[in-house]
From TrEMBL:
Coiled coil: none annotated. Pfam families: ADH_N, ADH_zinc_N_2. It comes from the Eukaryota. SMART domains: PKS_ER (SM00829). GO terms for cellular component: mitochondrion. This is Enoyl reductase (ER) domain-containing protein. Residues 17-331 form the Enoyl reductase (ER) domain. One of its GO terms (molecular function) is oxidoreductase activity.
Length: 338
């Protein structure tokens, strides 16, 4: 490639919200790749709460540098391969995630990504749908697959958000019975994705409804962090050897305090009685390829809330921060015409 620069959405502050500081840099440096990386021409990006919550959490911006490019999930085309990458070629369409992208993320025309965080785009799957799979798809697989067997009952707290829509589908692909939560307008969406039972938190108390079933679940995946007593009351609905996996929470003092109590407070002092895991996604190409195969078979599909033009990226973040997205919010990336 002859070009040395690209367009990228970047920010240098998050005061008052990251969306207020995002600006297009028309001359951002083109990423370079290592031997085990790919250079991807990005065509669509999926945005996640991580993309604004962590930068807005109060961490010193100077630790990250300047002209920061956000976003993790992407779909695009390979334009360059590292010398040690021998199973993907130039012009191959792929999807994946730029793990922990706080400064050199995917909301740009090009992104450098490790080989283990990329999988081929299945034929017939839309670019915009695949762009939202990456980190939330990995989260769904890695929180569920190691912890269940066919026929187990799984409770997913927050089934209509970006992570939950994949959690439902992955659990069903693994042969599990799925109970989930959402608000009234999203009940039919969750059922359409395969949920066997949906608790409408606008109408019913989540903990009381679960407790009325007795200890029946093998796994709880909490994508929300609310209600605050979900873990401490889990013994009323989680099997003795069941696991509680925390995915969603607020990276503020209140959220950190709640997680700390759940991890450290013993049961006899009011804490929980079950295994408690705070989840962090891991780089794993085999998990992305499992998602690819399930998408090819029609067992898992991308669920897109809305698609935004490149110039409207700040508005897409505003929509994300309302907490009312049904599935993933996608931003199309404007590429130069040849």
């Amino acid at each position: 490639m002859a070009q040395q620069t690209m367009k990228a959405w970047q920010y240098n502050s998050t005061k008052g919200g990251i969306e207020k500081h995002l600006k297009i840099n028309n001359a951002a440096p083109l990423p370079t790749i290592t031997d085990n990386e790919l250079l991807i021409q990005v065509h669509a990006v999926g945005i996640n709460p991580f993309d604004h919550k962590v930068p807005e959490s109060g961490m010193p911006m100077r630790l990250l540098g300047s002209n920061l490019t956000p976003c993790v999930d992407f779909c695009g085309k390979v334009v360059k391969v590292g010398t040690k990458v021998d199973d993907l070629e130039v012009d191959k369409w792929v999807f994946g995630a730029k793990m922990a992208a706080l400064n050199h993320g995917a909301l740009a025309q090009y992104v450098a990504v490790p080989r283990q965080m990329v999988a081929g785009l299945p034929e017939g799957v839309k670019v915009e749908d695949a762009a939202g799979v990456g980190i939330v798809g990995l989260t769904a697989v890695q929180t569920t697959k190691p912890n269940v067997k066919k026929g187990d009952k799984v409770f997913i707290n927050g089934g209509s958000g970006g992570t939950g829509v994949f959690g439902i589908q992955v659990a069903k692909a693994l042969g599990c019975h799925v109970t989930t939560t959402c608000s009234t307008p999203n009940v039919e969406l969750c059922k359409s994705l395969g949920a066997d039972e949906v608790i409408d938190y606008k109408k019913d108390d989540i903990v009381q409804t679960l407790a009325s079933k007795g200890p029946t679940f093998s796994l709880v995946v909490d994508n929300v962090g609310k209600p605050a007593n979900l873990y401490t009351r889990a013994s009323s609905f989680l099997l003795p050897q069941g696991k509680f996996v925390q995915v969603g929470s607020n990276p503020n003092l209140g959220g950190i305090a709640q997680i700390s109590r759940n991890m450290l407070l013993p049961g006899f002092l009011g804490g929980g009685m079950h295994s408690y895991q705070v989840f962090f996604a891991k780089k794993a190409v085999h998990d992305l390829e499992q998602l690819r195969d399930w998408m090819k078979e029609g067992k898992v599909k991308g669920v897109t809330d809305s698609v935004w033009e490149w110039e409207d990226a700040p508005k897409a973040f505003e929509k994300l921060k309302t907490g009312r997205a049904r599935g993933k919010i996608i931003i199309k990336v404007k590429q130069e015409e040849n």
